[in-house]
Design goal:
The structure is a single chain. The protein is 72% helix and 0% strand. α4 crosses α10, α8 packs antiparallel against α9 and α15 runs antiparallel to α16. The chain is an all-alpha fold. The two termini are 42 Å apart. The radius of gyration is 26 Å and the shape is globular. This is FUSC family protein. InterPro entries: PHBA_efflux_AaeB/fusaric-R (IPR006726). It is a multi-pass membrane protein.
């Protein structure tokens, strides 16, 4: 009998479209990085390859844009570190001050702004460079070490950019497939072959992935501007179709239902609309830009939004009322203490790890400090979930690496053979890391532990002690991070979910308080809000990873889930049609009551 845990593993490891391609590309780029590092004698090859695993996503546009951003930021930061070298090289206190200040600064920027995960990478690079200065006998060697550290970050990012541009998945085709997937689901709904759950699965994804694709397409001018505009409009219109499809069963009026009953339970207009939707989907799937159908006349009220959206598929959708926009920093960047506390806790954990292995004179467990930067997340539930994946991945990756050292590496005589081993091991790690958020980080950790064990120098090496030391460092870092995040300013997943949910409700209140023609929310605004609410749902799923002392009462969880469901309903209703001022005023009162209920819950 298959247990729940086994079913979850099987589900997470199932193949899906694009997973194989993502896994082999990650493996190829890591193999090429190993070749470059070893050929030119660049140290820290395992960390360089790990950055590839960290940055590479199934979305090639997001990976490339992040690689470009990290390359630019690291290139700006490294010259500053060269100037600080003379100050810190002979004074351990100054090194500690620079590590603490830079870590806090970059971690805070990553948490409180659009910088995101790149902030943690910058903090890691700066801290790691400073720790290397203690082993440098004089300034020139230290400066060379800093330049090597820059290469450690720049080479992997450069390879990601080159490989994604040269033979990555076609981003315009990915956009077309995304539109086709939505159109097919809408067609199934019109035919009566799909349920509301199928629609909501796509609605909750939002347009984040599509926006990333569009930025990439525009940056590299992959297709003519006319086609760019058509694709952008098609993405928005297809999302609009999903919104209408989510309410299809409830849109029929009494006259519509009578009309359908008189036709023997079959609506010919719905069948024709579904067929048109399917034809559009097939054309997009084939990489074409199909001709659009004409707006049908005398269609039932419930089908009119579908025929209109299909006829206007290449026409941009007017945006609704604007919500407050914060720019680079989040609106509460300077007022919310959560961001500062997160930066302080992560910095403290990293400093403790650095102090511990320095005091013990055990430099080979420096992976303890690296762990603190790459495993820290906003809430305790998220962090413990990530630590759990990290430990499991560490054990699997270490086992793969140790077996390779025992049975494969002794037979190797060249870098090329080692590249094949790296490709095989990282392909397995990449397969896991390209999965869902529930398990993806385990794949990243499998790759890191594997790389740290098999890549120890500038060629095949069989030193078992170095591999075991690095694994011990990972486990030590996990322990330090767990203790810090569960003992100092712990933030429960429910508390973080409440804050996110309140922010979405505030945006919805802004929309309902504005007067303009058309729906209160555009499809793009609805996509943004539904994706944010889906992040709240993921946050709530992390509650069970927290210590019992941090878990909220069941009543509070029930309230959050209920409010989440109601908020999703508001998002859709605001995007459907122009409502009367009386209805909008009622919505405003309900949203105000929901925000008040959230605010009076214990923090």
């Amino acid at each position: 009998m298959v247990s729940w845990f086994q079913r979850e593993i099987i589900q997470e490891l199932k193949p899906f479209e694009g997973r194989f391609e993502t896994a082999w590309r990650i493996a190829l780029i890591c193999s090429l990085a190993a070749l470059v590092f070893m050929t030119y004698g660049i140290p820290l090859v395992a960390i360089g390859c790990y950055l590839i695993l960290f940055v590479m996503k199934p979305d090639p546009a997001e990976s490339t844009l992040m690689a470009i951003g990290i390359s630019v930021l690291v290139s700006i930061v490294v010259p500053v570190l060269v100037l600080l070298t003379n100050l810190a090289i002979d004074v351990p206190l100054w090194r500690m001050v620079i590590i603490a200040v830079s870590s806090f600064l970059f971690l805070f920027l990553g948490a409180a702004s659009q910088l995101g995960p790149a902030g943690s990478i910058l903090a890691l690079v700066v801290a790691f460079i400073m720790t290397l200065l203690g082993n440098a006998p004089f300034g020139e060697v230290a400066t060379r070490g800093i330049l090597y550290a820059w290469l450690m970050a720049a080479v992997p990012m450069g390879l990601i950019i080159v490989c994604n541009v040269a033979f990555g998945r076609s981003v315009p085709r990915l956009l077309q497939r995304l539109v086709a997937e939505r159109l097919n689901v809408v067609a199934d709904v019109l035919h009566g072959h799909a349920s509301a759950d199928d629609v909501w699965t796509l609605l909750r994804k939002g347009n984040t992935e599509a926006d990333s694709y569009m930025k990439y397409v525009a940056l590299f001018h992959l297709i003519p501007k006319v086609q760019q505009a058509q694709l952008k409009a098609a993405v928005t219109r297809s999302y609009e179709l999903l919104i209408h499809a989510s309410q299809f069963d409830s849109l029929g009026t009494a006259d519509d239902k009578t009309h359908v009953a008189q036709r023997g339970g079959s609506d010919s207009y719905a069948t024709e609309s579904a067929a048109q939707c399917r034809r559009l989907a097939q054309a997009f799937q084939a990489g074409q830009y199909p001709a659009l159908p004409q707006q049908a006349e005398n269609v039932s009220v419930r089908l009119q939004p579908f025929t209109n959206a299909m006829a206007l598929l290449y026409t941009p959708v007017p945006e609704g009322g604007s919500a407050p926009h914060s720019g680079f920093f989040y609106p509460d960047a300077l007022t919310n203490p959560v961001y500062q506390r997160f930066a302080l806790k992560t910095t403290l954990a990293a400093v403790i790890a650095y102090t511990a292995y320095t005091a013990m004179d055990w430099q080979d467990i420096h992976t303890a400090m690296i762990t603190c930067y790459v495993a820290a997340l906003g809430s305790t539930g998220e962090t413990v979930h990530k630590l759990t994946l990290r430990i499991l991945g560490c054990l699997v990756g270490a086992a793969m690496g140790v077996l390779s050292i025992l049975f494969l590496i002794p037979l190797m005589t060249s870098i090329g053979q080692l590249m094949l081993l790296v490709f095989a091991g990282i392909f397995c790690a990449g397969w896991v890391s390209s999965g869902s958020e529930r398990s993806a980080y385990a794949g990243v950790q499998i790759g890191l532990a594997f790389l740290l064990t098999v890549l120890q120098g500038f060629g095949p090496d069989v030193q078992m002690s170095v591999a075991l030391d690095r694994i011990m460092g990972i486990l030590l870092g996990n322990l330090i991070l767990y203790l810090v995040f569960t003992r100092i300013w712990p933030i429960s997943a429910a508390q973080a979910a409440r804050a996110r949910l309140s922010a979405v409700l505030k945006r919805l209140s802004c929309y309902s308080g504005q007067s303009h023609p058309g729906p209160l929310c555009s499809p793009n605004q609805t996509a943004q809000n539904l994706a944010a609410l889906d992040a709240v749902r993921e946050q709530l799923s992390r509650v069970h990873f927290e210590p019992r002392s941090l878990r909220p009462p069941r009543e509070e969880l029930d309230l959050l889930k209920k409010t989440l469901k109601q908020s999703e309903g508001f998002c859709v209703r605001m995007a459907l049609a122009q409502e009367s001022r009386g209805t909008v005023a009622q919505w405003e009162r309900q949203l105000t009551d929901m925000r008040h209920q959230l605010s009076v819950q214990p923090a």
